[in-house]
Amino acid sequence: MVPLRGGTVQDHVALAEIELCGDLIIAASAAEDRLSLESIDEVLRVAEARAESSREQGPPPAGPAGSLRSASCGRWPATPP
Q: Which 3 state secondary structure label does DSSP give 20?
C-alpha cells in the first residue's frame, strides 16, 4: 500500500452528501410519523439548491414531482411494510 502524500484526502461532494444524509436521519428520528415529501425536500434544502442552480445556469429541467430526489432511489411505499 502506498502512503498518501499530505495525510488526508477529502471529497467535498461526498462530505456534503454525508451531511445531508445525517440531517435527514435526524429529522426522521425526531418525527412522530413518516416525513412527507415536502418535509424531505425542506431537510435536503431543495429550494436552496434550485435557487443556486438557477443563478448559475438558468432554470433546472423539470423532473418528476419537481424534486431533486433521484428516480434511482426507488419508490417509497405509502404504507409501512
A: helix
